[in-house]
Design a protein that fits this description.
Distance between the termini: 56 Å
Radius of gyration: 24 Å
Shape: elongated
Helix content: 55-70%
Number of strands: 2
Length: 262
């Protein structure tokens, strides 16, 4: 290790690579995105649990899951065979609703914290200006932009391959004898960021249908079956990540993309 360090200090950059350690502020900013993702998953689980319990007794729908008079409805619901809800079932559903609304209140509180972090010049959130830049693109809202900057664009990348590697979207090399080729993506990078990019990619195709990236996806993958579409959206996520990186760092608008207000 000592010889490696000496060689690097002497100017031989081929002996090792320097890892850029993120600042404590950049690491802390990730909590905004990761906690919200976890809370959103918890909200979905509670909703599915309530619907599952009701469906088990022949009740297919209930209004007011996000608020309203759900408690009044529970008193009036009748099972598929004409009975009122059992007292223990009803009590379990009430507790599920309590947990659901607790999670929803926490999401609301977290959203307020996120908005304050972007407008307060004293907040340690890195890359506030990059969030504003990303929201200029149609289809990328403030929430997605904030999470994207917190997870990805607060860092510096030397080139597009470094960005793809960080996201786990770079191809894995395969070598055997005289055969050398790239295979599927490595998935060795930042999993929350990779998941977020795929979600943004689906939104991009909906809100930017005339962009060059969306046209490329539809021409190459859209008509070739479900598996092809799944593979294609990962490939497009890599291309979109690179295009957004060029946009926030150099102001290069993705080809054919629509800007808000135009």
């Amino acid at each position: 290790m000592t010889f490696t360090l000496r060689a690097y200090v002497a100017g031989d950059s081929s002996v090792c690579r320097v890892v850029e350690i993120p600042t404590p502020e950049a690491e802390d900013a990730k909590r905004l995105s990761r906690e919200r993702t976890r809370l959103a998953s918890e909200r979905t689980r509670h909703v599915n649990r309530i619907r599952g319990l009701l469906s088990l007794h022949g009740i297919r729908s209930i209004k007011g899951l996000w608020g309203g008079d759900w408690r009044t409805q529970l008193d009036q619901l009748v099972t598929g065979d004409g009975r009122m809800l059992g007292p223990y079932l009803k009590a379990e559903i009430i507790r599920e609703f309590a947990r659901l609304h607790l999670v929803m209140d926490q999401i609301k509180e977290l959203e307020g914290t996120r908005r304050d972090a972007l407008i307060d010049h004293r907040s340690p959130f890195p890359g506030k200006e990059k969030v504003a830049t990303l929201t200029k693109l149609a289809g990328i809202g403030e929430l997605s932009a904030t999470l994207l900057v917190a997870e990805v664009f607060h860092r510096r990348f030397q080139n597009r391959r470094h960005l793809a590697s960080y996201l786990g979207l770079a191809p894995s090399p395969y070598a055997s004898g005289d055969m050398q080729r790239d295979q599927g993506i490595s998935k060795a990078g930042n999993k929350p960021a990779r998941t977020l990019l795929v979600e943004i990619t689906w939104a991009w195709m909906r809100h930017q249908p005339t962009s060059e990236l969306a046209l490329w996806y539809r021409e190459r993958f859209a008509e070739n079956g479900a598996r092809s579409r799944k593979v294609g959206v990962v490939a497009m996520a890599r291309k979109l990540a690179i295009a957004l990186w060029h946009f926030v760092e150099h102001g290069i608008v993705p080809s054919g993309a629509i800007l808000n207000g135009r």
